[in-house]
Amino acid sequence: MAIRRRVLLIGLAGGLGAAGCAREPAAPPTPAVIRFEPAAHEAGARQPGVVRVSEGTLRSVEWIDETGRALPGAAAPDQRSWTSSEPLGYGHTYTAKAVAHGETGAVTATTTCVTPTPDQLIDVSLRSATMVELAENDTYGVGFVVVAHFDAPVDRAAAQGCLKVLTEPAVPGGWYWLDDRNAHWRPERYYAPGSRVTVSAELFGAALGTGSYGARDQRVSVLIGPAHVAIADDDTKMIDVFENGNLIRSMPTSMGMGGTSVVGGRVLSFWTRPGTYTVLDRQDPVIMDSSSYGLPVNSGLGYRSTIHHAVRISHDGIFVHALAQSVWAQGNTNVSHGCLNISPEDAAWFFDYVIPGDVVEVRNTGGDPLDIWQNGDWGIPWPEWLRGSARG
């Protein structure tokens, strides 16, 4: 019995040793896995079409729209992804098909996606306060304000998310919405001379509210010139012009005579409103006609005159301009309807000196403060300006 038991134990030991040396079964082959982006049925117009493959490589990709046109694109060098060379766009129904090769051989996958069809396409005009569109590398003064004017009402928060302003050097700044079509951007303080301001509107593919989408992307970059700041003080009746902080010219002026008049049921003010203006444009000559703002030429206060070297600083017709007839009053008496009269010599110099965005600060006059619609962006206190943002 002892011998038989020994043989049995040896047999069990040998059996256990043989089981410990057995090989694991080979892993089954892995098929290639194909993913489409966008994965959802609904796709954004701005998105590209993308195909990715894991556990294999791509062999072919077709991304076809409803007309049979193939969306152009190219595979990555490792053949593990494919990306279209243009966005999916508006109003398309795509059928995509991809073939990939993995350990199990060829795998085919398909998908469909639909891009939005806008009820309306909305564009934006990127301007300065002059209401002229920005042009690449144009130069503006240190009071430059960016104006985004949409050609239809928009959802403010959605639209503001598409607008970007980059300043070099960087400065704090923000958007202020005047209404659902107009937003202005400015820094907290005047720009440093030599700054670059780059404005972009990435509207294409963006939902802007009630079935409206953005029409296109835009980007433009402008420069800021020397710091030209003119200070018109009614206490002294002088305009002092500073360049980069240094006084370079003092010019006697005659400003608005003050008071109001009711004409045709409208109250007309003859003050030069206090506030911070910027240069909008220059005209030589310009026909100034009081009937343009409701004061008939044949009334006792009306006029229609040809004026030279006129620098516009407000949208409602305030200019710094030449007027030889009021030289006697310049520096001592206010006799104008609201403009800042200066001598022909000073006006010619100022006309040649300024550029759009240069600053004209009017101090110590009567009347209501300058309104933002009149070119009064810089008169809004910074905390209030920030509250005008669509994003808080």
In short:
By secondary structure, the protein is mostly beta strands. The protein has helices at residues 2-20, 156-160, 344-353, 382-387, and strands at 33-37, 48-54, 57-64, 73-75, 81-87, 93-102, 105-114, 120-122, 124-127, 139-140, 146-150, 163-168, 173-179, 182-187, 196-202, 207-209, 212-214, 217-224, 228-233, 238-243, 246-252, 260-263, 266-269, 275-278, 281-283, 286-289, 304-307, 310-312, 319-322, 340-342, 359-363.
Number of domains: 3
Largest beta sheet: what is the strand line-up?
Answer: 21-20-19-31-24
Question: Care to count the β-strands?
Answer: 31
Mean pLDDT: 90
DSSP strand content = 35-45%
Low-confidence stretches: 1-21
Distance between the termini: 95 Å
Main beta sheet, described? 5 strands, mixed
CATH superfamily of the largest domain: L,D-transpeptidase catalytic domain-like
| Helix content percent band | 10-25%
CATH topology of the largest domain: L,D-transpeptidase catalytic domain-like
User: What structural category arises from helix and sheet content?
Assistant: mainly beta
CATH architecture field of the largest domain: Beta Barrel
CATH class of the largest domain: Mainly Beta
Shape: elongated
Protein architecture, described:
With 392 residues, the protein is mostly beta strands. The chain is built from four helices and 31 strands. Strand 20 and strand 21 (246-252) form a beta hairpin. The termini are far apart. The chain is 10% helix and 41% strand. It has helices at 2-20, 156-160, 344-353, 382-387; strands spanning 33-37, 48-54, 57-64, 73-75, 81-87, 93-102, 105-114, 120-122, 124-127, 139-140, 146-150, 163-168, 173-179, 182-187, 196-202, 207-209, 212-214, 217-224, 228-233, 238-243, 246-252, 260-263, 266-269, 275-278, 281-283, 286-289, 304-307, 310-312, 319-322, 340-342, 359-363. It has three domains: 33-114, Immunoglobulin-like; 120-225, Immunoglobulin-like, CATH 2.60.40.3710; 228-379, L,D-transpeptidase catalytic domain-like (Beta Barrel), CATH 2.40.440.10. The strands form nine sheets. Strands 21-20-19-31-24 form a five-stranded mixed β-sheet, with no helix packed on it. Strands 1-2-5-4 form a four-stranded antiparallel β-sheet, with no helix packed on it.
